[in-house]
Amino acid sequence: MKRHYLPPLLLLSQLPLIAIAIAKQNDAQPIERITTTASRVEALSTQLPVIISVLNEAQLNAIAPTHIEEAMQRVAGANIQRGNGQEYLPALRSPVLSGAGACGGLLTLEDGIALRAAGFCNINELFEAHSEMAQRIEVLKGPGSALYGSNAVHGVINVITPDTTQDGGLIGLDYGSFGYNRYKLRAGHDMGSSGLGINASITDDSGYRDDESVKQQKVNLRHRYNNSDLALTSGLTYTHLDQQTAGFITGLKSYKDESIAQQNFDPDAFRKARSLRVWSNATWQLNDDTLSTTVYLRNQSMDFFKHFLPGTPLEYNSQTGVGLQSLYQHQLEDNIKLNFGLDGEYTRADFLQSQNKPTQGSAFLVATVPQGKHYDYDVNATLYAPFASVDLQLNDWLVTLGARYEHMQYDYTNNMLAGRTKEDGTECGFGGCRYSRPASTKNNFSNLSPKLGVSYQYTVNNLLYANFSRGYRAPQAAELYQLQRQQNTTNLSAEIANNAEFGLKGVYQNSRYNLSVYAMSKHHTIYRDSDFFTVNNGSSRHRGIELELEHALTSTWSVNFAASYAKHSYTNEQILNNINIKDNDVDTAPRKIANLDLTWQAFNNANVALQWHHVGRYYTDPENLHSYDGHDILSLRAQWQITNNLALAARIINLTDTAYAERADYTSFTGDRYFPGRPRNAMISATYSW
């Protein structure tokens, strides 16, 4: 038997023993963990037949993340690969997602509202959530709820901002290596039945690599009004990012050469992004029933220098939209709860890609990548989605059954000449231009996603669960309308994922744990083939086991452990470089990822934590001919509550100064390429609260 199969099989073999051992304990109080991601209203996640990982405010304060990747290391099954600045590529029970529409495989929210409109995601969109000053981050794994439709294929990441409408607040300063500064403010005023507050941060990071920097500002405003029957909460989030970007370095293991790792071979690259979300939620308590509605307005725009493409064009994109979320919970019987609602959204999006200078390079590139506009289009998108579910409580059993129907329509208008000509209509050499513009059209997508979950609470604090669900994502606008070469139209359908999951979760003596095993199959995967056509015939298989464990070793020592072992493989026939990739590992999908935090409570108001983060070896191409060895990073953190109001914290990341790559990749054009990880770096923080 191959060695890499032993860890999951050994753990699986222990599941019955674990269940028996836990069942023998004498439970006292039921566990309580609040979530809003599972039901849109605050509720206990105890008996739900899904796994929701929660990073609470105390954990986030201890981590003091400069990037959400640093926090997500504590979530089993997550693998956020940081690029440069605030950029990243995400993975959650998946390989790292990349490509024009791959961001549609993961739904990202702030306070329950999608950061981007369905159909117009951005792979880096979590930089528009205020994760640096969040109250908590909730991660729902897999397509586990009828509340979420398109994009919630591999899961949901929901950043919850704090309720600042109570009295109190804080001011803070973070100061770190390579010119990192962050200023924080939180303040609120409670007026009884109403309140008003602000949560803001300003970040200035001059960066480790040459000619890179990040200037970022984020602010949340919150207003609250409540009486005996109605709770009305309104919020505003504004973010602004001004980033000078450093791109890949190339050459086998070049990240180990400090002189190369620090260089920036794309000094003109930049990203400028703005986002605004305004929302208002009204929740009525009607006897035992609950009605919740949220209306929101979303506006975003971004200027992006595509330094990685021939001709280095500029991209300008924007979107403005309005939406509604609704949920009615009706207690039909003491043991039967009905949930149903309607979500709707209208979005106007614009896209322009233009090249200001002639292309440099081979005669082929010069001839086929022309100066001028490549794409210029706008899309009016309409989405509506009714959903319903029922929760049936039968003694220690909970059965949840639900479904969501979602209809998406794109009304696309091409503002240029259709086809693969230059902007003025003249032909390119070598058979035609690289970029192809489809004629104006409409596209419609409808999908039904059923969900079934069962949990059995065999002791007060512990349960077994299973769920079976289907996830999907409609094709993104970029996949439909940014075509290349001879393709002038697409015939795409939604990506479909069928998921089955089993697990245990609960509290046993001094431990809180989640243990889950999942199997997912994806069909109709959208990708760009070797002819540069956007096609819909990919498929893949995803199998994994995950463990999250919080355990108190003694009264002063504790551990927090998160680990996953997963295999993500291609199941479609595709020939690349004379190799059939079927059954190969999907590229950029490490099988083993683990994180361990060992914390020592030195005395009542101070603690020290040592972190070990492990990323296993993974292939960097679909042919499985090239790979990255993986890495192990140690970090040290300390917190000291000097007075009731004043706290100090310090951290050293990459304690042993290991040379590693945040992201490794291979292409036939560049060979091995990397985003190098930062060398040893430190940060100190001071916070005054009242």
From TrEMBL:
<dbReference type="Pfam" id="PF07715">
    <property type="entry name" value="Plug"/>
</dbReference>
<dbReference type="InterPro" id="IPR012910">
    <property type="entry name" value="Plug_dom"/>
</dbReference>
<keyword id="KW-0812">Transmembrane</keyword>
<keyword id="KW-0813">Transport</keyword>
<dbReference type="Pfam" id="PF00593">
    <property type="entry name" value="TonB_dep_Rec_b-barrel"/>
</dbReference>
<feature type="signal peptide">
    <location>
        <begin position="1"/>
        <end position="23"/>
    </location>
</feature>
<keyword id="KW-1134">Transmembrane beta strand</keyword>
<dbReference type="InterPro" id="IPR000531">
    <property type="entry name" value="Beta-barrel_TonB"/>
</dbReference>
<feature type="domain" description="TonB-dependent receptor plug">
    <location>
        <begin position="48"/>
        <end position="156"/>
    </location>
</feature>
<keyword id="KW-0732">Signal</keyword>
<dbReference type="InterPro" id="IPR039426">
    <property type="entry name" value="TonB-dep_rcpt-like"/>
</dbReference>
<keyword id="KW-0410">Iron transport</keyword>
<keyword id="KW-0408">Iron</keyword>
<dbReference type="GO" id="GO:0006826">
    <property type="term" value="P:iron ion transport"/>
</dbReference>
<comment type="similarity">
    <text>Belongs to the TonB-dependent receptor family.</text>
</comment>
<dbReference type="InterPro" id="IPR036942">
    <property type="entry name" value="Beta-barrel_TonB_sf"/>
</dbReference>
<keyword id="KW-0406">Ion transport</keyword>
<dbReference type="InterPro" id="IPR037066">
    <property type="entry name" value="Plug_dom_sf"/>
</dbReference>
<keyword id="KW-0472">Membrane</keyword>
<protein>
    <recommendedName>
        <fullName>Outer membrane cobalamin translocator</fullName>
    </recommendedName>
</protein>
<dbReference type="GO" id="GO:0009279">
    <property type="term" value="C:cell outer membrane"/>
</dbReference>
<keyword id="KW-0998">Cell outer membrane</keyword>
<feature type="domain" description="TonB-dependent receptor-like beta-barrel">
    <location>
        <begin position="213"/>
        <end position="655"/>
    </location>
</feature>
<keyword id="KW-0798">TonB box</keyword>
